Amino acid sequence: MKSFKWFTVILVLSVFVSQIATSEELATKEECIQKCGEVAAIIKEKGADEAIKLVNDNSGPFVWKDTYVYIMDLEATIVAHGPQPKFIGKNLMGLKDPVSKQPWYPALFEKIKAGTNSGWFDYHWKKPNAEGVYTKNCYFEQAGDLVVFAGIYGDKVK
What we know:
This protein is of the alpha+beta class and 158 residues long. Helix content is 35%, strand content 28%. The longest helix has 21 residues, at 2-22.
């Protein structure tokens, strides 16, 4: 009977530990809105250069859990991207969704230029530190001549 109790305790502990080891903290929609608002406030109060510096810091406050903030100008050129600095200076207007094979930025930037200053849009993207392509629900907020983005990842699609 004593060995059964120990077996049960060990089994429960191993399940608990394995869940901790494999669980990944996921960003929330609320955090994305908050982080974009913080970056937009920095742009307004301290200028674009300060915001860009902070967003480009891969160990800073704008890279968290399983996501990050990035900044584009109104022509869809990346000006800040902490986890993937290779995108900085690249225009993504023609970038195609890996699933639908359609570009998603042209329609979004038409909305922004027509006066939609914030909102959500969906596309598919590679999740940092994971294999494959996932759904992504992304929040955007315009801050002067820049647009600040952050999104949450959903299911793996390929």
